[in-house]
Amino acid sequence: MKFFIDTADVGEIRSWNETGLIDGVTTNPSLILKSGRDINEALAEICDIVAGPVSGEVTALDTAGMISQGKTLAKIASNICIKLPLTLDGLKACKALTGEGFKTNVTLCFSANQALLAAKAGATFVSPFIGRLDDINIDGMELIEEIRAIFDNYDFKTEILAASLRTANHVKDCAISGADVATIPPSTLEKLVAHPLTDKGLAAFLADWEKTGQSIG
Ligand code: E4P
What is the pLDDT of residue 188? Predict the structure, then answer.
């Protein structure tokens, strides 16, 4: 499973990219607002840091406007992935843009049928939002399983980009359910690393090592 980082915070992206574990980045208008940055400048910087796909989201609601904004965003760098909402206009824009060779991420997906439409429109990625479904007591992970089954039935190449992941368990369950990509906020990435038994075990090993009086190298 690929790991994308779900933030427009360039400092966080730079720091996590140093781990070598980050395969791409997702942003959205709310994350751009949170970053306090100009979208063009932030995306250009992010695309310089991370070689993989960097999603930048259009804000137009009509197909022509989405295509125009998408092409403008794609001029920023060759690894820009145009993020489009899962509406009829968004699907039409997706079909047109993928037909012209652009990478696309159809976002705000909340049902298997929506994902099927995104795949038929040729999306590079479709983004089911797990946390927001959990917020309304719908099992987001079931959605990932349904989409996985549908895409495998028909050999769709669209990648399932699990989004709105809020917990370490979300990430684990996405991997079990066969998501191709998990986009993870920095705070959740930190939670994936930490385990109290790792800290406790390391402290015990180091204490015993001290007692041996040895050194390596
Ligand atoms: C990523 O593409 C999404 O925009 C993001 O994961 C949404 O997360 P949220 O539901 O926590 O805002």
Answer: 96
